[in-house]
Fold:
Amino acid sequence: MAKKLVIKVTAGADAPERCSQAFTVAAVAVASGVEVSLWLTGESSWFALPGRAAQFELPHAAPLPDLIDSVLAAGKVTLCTQCAARRGITEEDVLEGVRIAGAQVFVSEALGDGTQALVY
Structure:
């Protein structure tokens, strides 16, 4: 089993099941002791902002704010640089603990030894 998991989520409210699956896998991995790096790209970029995850609803799914909190508590959450810029999101806007970084950081993390990368 990989000791590190890098998850890129591209979906947001536009594809709620795919979005929820990504956050759920990230939270379960953290709870299992796996080192997790969760990347918010595309429409999931909005969930880097305070209060946005609370607006997300999907029947029979764990609340998105709870999943994000669990990942932030023991893993890393990164907002894509270009995705943030396209949406006018700055470092001052995001949840505490969320960093903004670009593709070179994602590639470096995804290609690390013992790492498994997933894209949703």
About this structure: The longest helix spans residues 16-31.
